[in-house]
Amino acid sequence: MPTKKDDVYGDHISNRFNDELLALQTRFLKMGGLVETQIDSAVKALIEGDGQLAEEIRSKDKLVDRMEMDIDEEAMLIIARRQPTARDLRLVISVIRMVADLERVGDEAKKIAKFAIKLLDEGQSPQGYVEVRNISAHVMTMLHDSLDAFARLDSEQALRVMKEDKRVDEEYQAAARTLLTFMMEDPRNISRCMSVMWVLRSLERVGDHACNIAENVIFMVKGEDVRHTPMEEAERVVGR
């Protein structure tokens, strides 16, 4: 259940409106928990060569899509019925934005599962799996922390998530160079290394989506849009 730190939602005269906002937040967090599990399981399927788990992940993609559509519909109904203003409108708009990021995280989990099956069919190669473990652990922490920041309306934690994005980009570039070396050493590695490269790219994108969620948390709490702004500006907004 969402808690409050920097701001307070759910203190309206209408208890029904309070319940609607709380339900919207809760459904968003439920979807967030599902896509967290999807990413974690996709990486596990890849590393452990678990084709059955990979197929299960692919089959759940439609559930993620359905949840996105349901939350979007619920948010639009709140806007139509309640005509929220100020902070409540920021909450609803932010959920609409963030649920799209969660759906794309689900898409990345599906891609990773697809490459897990492909690598299993080709004969697994451990090359690049250390990098996969490292980057997946990093972006999973970012995703979890961004959802936690939303639940607690914690703009400071959201800012910390944003600052991690640069590190993930650096880790991805270093991993790509390592895989390129493997491919140059033995051309027989090219196909498998390219599959791992695409997995790393998907994980890097998960970090981007976690960062997007964090940016929207700051917008919810502080009322300023920090997308496409320098980190120094985001720090100023959070610190004021």
TrEMBL record:
It is found in: Cytoplasm. Keywords: Cytoplasm, Phosphate transport, Transport. Residues 29-115, 133-217 form the PhoU domain. It holds the Pfam family PhoU. Gene3D superfamilies: Phosphate transport system protein phou homolog 2, domain 2. Its main location: cytoplasm. InterPro entries: PhoU, PhoU-like_sf, PhoU_dom. Plays a role in the regulation of phosphate uptake. Homodimer. Belongs to the PhoU family. This is Phosphate-specific transport system accessory protein PhoU.
